[in-house]
Design a protein that fits this description.
It holds the Pfam family PIH1_CS. By secondary structure, this protein is of the alpha+beta class. The protein is built from five helices and seven strands; from the N terminus they run H-H-H-H-H-E-E-E-E-E-E-E.
Amino acid sequence: DGLENKYKVALDETNFRILKNKKVVDRLISHNIQNRDVKQVIESYPSQSADDRILLSELENPRPLGAQTSKKPLIEEIDAGTVKTVKNETNSSRTVVPLAEPAPYVPDPTKVAISQAATKKPESKLFREPAVGRAKQLIGEFHLPDCISSSEITLDVGEDRILLEARKKGYLLDVFVDYRIDESKVEARFDTTTKILQVTMPVLAA
């Protein structure tokens, strides 16, 4: 409207193009805008809209201070009774949607095989040397027929505990012995032909 009034032209308001990623085309030309009264600007419009006429009537007949307008205020105080009524209405209008039944659980075969590691205990034998007198070392033999190499086996020897595990093949052995083992000098060797893991465990003095 300002351009039409200033340059006395009629702009087509139905055919226009929105500029994307740019504010102007060509170069900007400086314009001087006169700060005039709003009422005078609206009265100068050749065609006034309904909102313009409402605003113009409000400017011509201003409401006295404290007079209530027809518009609802943005913030309104309500009492406790109204709050309770609103809460009851909100609760009563809720719709309970039944939950869909969950799909049947299908376990992962790999995880099942790992979780069943404790169900298969390998055959084992434990010898002491010498057979009479104070024991100097323990020799353990563990038969693991499903293992191919020593990389599949995890062995952890503590002071009085032997923990042997081969999760992918389903082996687990956890035993305690009546000797104090020198865990720093434990040696283990896996024979790929006989599938026997031999563990030599020196014994500390009592």
